[in-house]
# Entry
Amino acid sequence: MKVSAVIVILGLVGAASALPFGRPNYQNMTAPNPDEMGDNFEGDIKFAADQVISPHTGILDPYWRWEKIGNNPTIPYVFDSAFTATHRAVIVAGMATIQASTCVRFVPRTSERDYITIQSANSGCWSYVGRIRNAQILNLSIQAGCVTKGIATHELIHAVGFFHAQSDVNRDQYVRIKWENVMEGKEHNFEVYTNSYVTDYGEGYDYGSIMHYGPYAFSKNYMPTIEAIYNTGEIMGQRDTATHRAVIVSGMATIQASTCVRFVPRTTERDYITIQSANSGCWSYVGRIRNAQILNLSIQAGCVTKGIATHELIHAVGFFHAQSDVNRDQYVRIKWENVMEGKEHNFEVYTNSYF
# Structure
């Protein structure tokens, strides 16, 4: 089970939850992902010349970010002719995964100067990080097994502007690098970046990130090269989906994009929400109730979607359901004869003194 996320709303927060100790869930993952074993930096990252020269560029530098159309960073793309319709559908599904939980948008190129060309040269799975200007390559080798939804998503996230999760400046608090198992000459793939170069945007370390290496990346002896310090139940190196945390954060981003509300990771604030996944459905308190308060998104019940997370977070901000509005009967009819017995109270109207 994932460790609960602790979030502050409008500057209101409380006490950090401790992570349980124990061995991570490797799920017998002995084979590294294709994107982890290439000859590029960290296996699948290409650098523009000026990214290498300057120590203060990267995701923190607006120069490498894609231009926005409205509020959406927008990435034009083209496919080369090597991909079949099926291959293209898989890659577009990776784009859809990113779009479902972020404000990033991928669009077929028309005449834009800066864009990515998705090709299938026999050189593995790799991408540049961020926008490097003009045409830039994102390579998904069909022969190397790179054309999967997960790997496509991973490489596209590099193109958006993100590095690997285990390069985070705080990574040594969460994982141990088993240097004795790393291939000679590949040690540079486990470098840590400074805060002047990258940021996690306050989201914290995520073992289950689709951008995290698996435990056997660049292993010379089939022994783990990365070992989790805490057991959160997440799978390092998974390429199946965006993590639960990423989906919930995308719900926060939806609210922040159209309001003045801001969600921030808790430090020492007294009033805060703990986002948990007890098997009790999807629910939240309304507004700030003081001290720690629960917002529940049951994984088992299917609550961890961008839409449901946004809905429950809006309750936590302080809003009730729209159909409880004092004027609702001017706009909708409640068909009482069809309502479950004992559930009529769910259709109550609030007064102006309350709502």
User: Anything to note?
Assistant: The chain has two domains: 5-17+244-323, 20-243. Residues 5-17+244-323 form a domain with the Collagenase (Catalytic Domain) fold (CATH 3.40.390.10). Residues 85-101 form the longest helix (17 residues).
